[in-house]
């Protein structure tokens, strides 16, 4: 196994552990065991636990597979979160608040997360304003949706059908995207 592949395996093992247990509740030993490697190798390939925690945040919050021709971006962004919930896949939007809150330096983590996410959402929605207010509002809505689905489990499939959820919440997000006066 190459060093890059082993590092990817470690990061893949770390994401759900950090999401489930948080920074303080996850040990290097836990991550090593989940990845099938030694704790020493985890440290060698990722540096400190804090660096591993930051590296576990994916570079792209589920934006790579968005096809604007398929459906409007607000609906597609919501659909991606709901589909990941339904399949049990890793959810960036649900993990992001924990990555910031539990980072050794939350202020720096918050700034990095904003720098990483807001411009990507702005590109997806076609916003070119300097303040990117619409993109920031969309990010806020997506964080809220992910928390409601994953952390608090308020909007379970039993409470609202996934298709209805996508339609209703997608309309909210799309309304922000379409409001060029913001």
Q: Given the structure, what is the number of helices?
A: 9
| Overall shape | globular
- Helix-strand pattern: HHHHHHHHH
Major sheet description: none
**Strand elements, count:** 0
Overall structural class, as computed from helix and strand content, comes to: mainly alpha
Distance between the termini: 50 Å
The proportion of residues in beta strands is under 5%
Overview of the structural elements:
The structure is a single chain. Helix content is 70%, strand content 0%. The chain has helices at 3-25, 28-35, 39-46, 49-55, 73-87, 92-101, 106-125, 133-151, 162-178. The chain contains nine helices and no strands. The protein starts with a helix and ends with a helix. It is mainly alpha-helical and 182 residues long.
């Amino acid at each position: 196994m190459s060093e890059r592949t082993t590092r990817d395996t470690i990061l893949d093992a770390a994401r759900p552990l950090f999401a489930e247990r948080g920074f303080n509740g996850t040990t290097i030993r836990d991550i090593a065991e989940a990845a099938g490697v030694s704790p020493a190798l985890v440290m060698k390939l990722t540096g400190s636990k804090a660096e591993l925690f930051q590296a576990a945040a994916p570079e792209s919050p589920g934006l790579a597979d968005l096809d604007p021709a398929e459906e409007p971006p607000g609906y597609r962004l919501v659909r991606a979160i709901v589909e990941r919930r339904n399949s049990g896949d890793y959810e960036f939007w649900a993990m992001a608040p924990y990555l910031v809150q539990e980072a050794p330096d939350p202020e720096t983590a918050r700034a990095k997360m904003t720098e990483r996410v807001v411009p990507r959402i702005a590109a997806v929605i076609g916003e070119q304003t300097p303040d990117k207010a619409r993109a920031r509002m969309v990010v806020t809505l997506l964080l809220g949706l992910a928390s409601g689905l994953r952390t608090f489990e308020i909007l379970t499939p039993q409470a609202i059908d996934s298709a209805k959820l996508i339609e209703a919440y997608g309309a909210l997000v799309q309304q922000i995207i379409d409001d060029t006066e913001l």
